[in-house]
Prior knowledge:
By secondary structure, this protein is α/β, with parallel strands linked by helices. It is built from seven helices and seven strands; from the N terminus they run E-H-E-H-E-H-E-H-E-H-E-H-H-E. The chain has a seven-stranded parallel sheet with strand order 3-2-1-4-5-6-7, sandwiched between helices.
Amino acid sequence: MDINGCAALVTGGAGGLGEATVRRLVADGVNVVIADLADDRGEKLAADLGDRAIYVRTDVLDDASVAAAVETAQSRGGLRLAVAAHGGWAAQMRVLGRDGSPMPQQLFDKTVALYLSGTFNVLRQSAAAMARLEPQDSGCRGVIVNTASIAAFEGQIGQSDYAAAKGGVVGLGLAAARDLSAVGVRVVTIAPGTFFTPAFQMEEEEAQATWGSSVPFPKRMGRPAEYAALVATIVDNDYLNGETIRIDGAQRFGPK
């Protein structure tokens, strides 16, 4: 699919995997809506990238907020790509604490809401906008890229909420791709391994020394630009649909 001159929506677009994706898409001639809640970073990124990027404050759990971001993208050349790369929360608690008390249900619900319900909210509204566009020569109207995690397959100790939410994103992919085949919208899921992003709140050298050595090859953490490159490949290849693609250097999480 050729989206040069068309529009893309990237949730979590102000930092980490999302920012790298925004930068790659702008470099490829795409008009990008940076959808995030990080106003300072989002506005600065949009200013740095010029007319092809615009920041729209977006809460993925709010219907009206997502609708405004989608319509902004639709008005900037037609929404052909939506990338759900938002994050920022996980309980990081065991099901039972050391004292035997269970994880609070509201913490589990909060994680699932952000990563799974928020992803679906972006997917459903983006798909509705894409369905209103004329198909390209291939018959494709658009593509939606969701972000899971290899924790969906190998959830670690203390990740029950996160693993369940990301497992839901994996399960959503094929079902949504089948639903949206009638309107020519593809759905592909990316499951990253350990990528270095600002969320680590430390210098990259320190993070690489701590986590990079556990990756078989390349023996380092992933780079956000590599995630962005995979998004570009997914857009380009119309036969990628309904699949979850791991990008993890052959890493498989152990229990902890």
